């Protein structure tokens, strides 16, 4: 269930893999909901796994910075997030990913492991496990690509979304290759500001830099 986090520990003879790499050779009955985690055998030694279920931490404040470069065939998307737990220490970070998002990089000083899961509705989730409970600021960085339909003049920008936040601020900078003449069709809930006011930290998220 989405309100619980599954944590694997003390595993022997197993290696965790992304769910999209899981292809069972035999399955007596297809489960009603997608698998939460997947593993493959490593070596010929004995195999064991300890799996625990913990309530997901729901209270954090965050500053989210996004950089998007629109190229001819793809959108290059970067996310730099700083999270501060507002209540109990945070053990993991959960991010919702767009369906067609190709994840190319995951980083963070306190990130110990990461893997993809899916909800019962088939929505993609990226779970980042942290090095023990974190009561101070947690920093994560994600990079990835989205395909762009070259037959369409309008491009929708879909972003990875950090979940389990009760307060956050977001900044988004968009760069467009010189072959295009951009025009903002619908800003949605975003407020525009002078591009000269883009901070160096936000500018560093340009994939062309």
What layout of secondary structure does this protein have?
Layout: E1 4-12, E2 14-17, E3 38-41, E4 48-55, E5 60-70, E6 74-85, E7 90-97, E8 102-107, E9 111-118, E10 124-134, E11 138-147, E12 161-162, E13 167-176, H1 200-203
Descriptive terms for the model:
single chain, 209 residues, mainly beta, 5-stranded mixed beta sheet, 4-stranded antiparallel beta sheet, 13 strands, 49% strand, globular
Tell me about this structure.
By secondary structure, the chain is mainly β. The chain has one helix and 13 strands, in the order E-E-E-E-E-E-E-E-E-E-E-E-E-H. It has one helix at residues 200-203, and strands at residues 4-12, 14-17, 38-41, 48-55, 60-70, 74-85, 90-97, 102-107, 111-118, 124-134, 138-147, 161-162, 167-176. Strands 8-11-6-5-13 form a five-stranded mixed β-sheet, with no helix packed on it. A hairpin with a 3-residue loop joins strand 5 and strand 6. The longest helix has 4 residues, at 200-203. It is globular, with a radius of gyration of 19 Å.
Number of helices: 1
Q: Report the principal-axis shape.
A: globular
Q: Sheet bearing the most strands, described?
A: 5 strands, mixed
Helix and strand composition category: mainly beta
Low-confidence stretches: none
- Could you give the distance between the termini? 40 Å
Question: What proportion strand?
Answer: over 45%
Strand line-up in the sheet with most strands: 8-11-6-5-13
Overall number of strands = 13
What is the N-to-C succession of helices and strands? EEEEEEEEEEEEEH
Radius of gyration: 19 Å
Mean pLDDT: 82
What is the helix fraction of residues, given as a range? under 10%
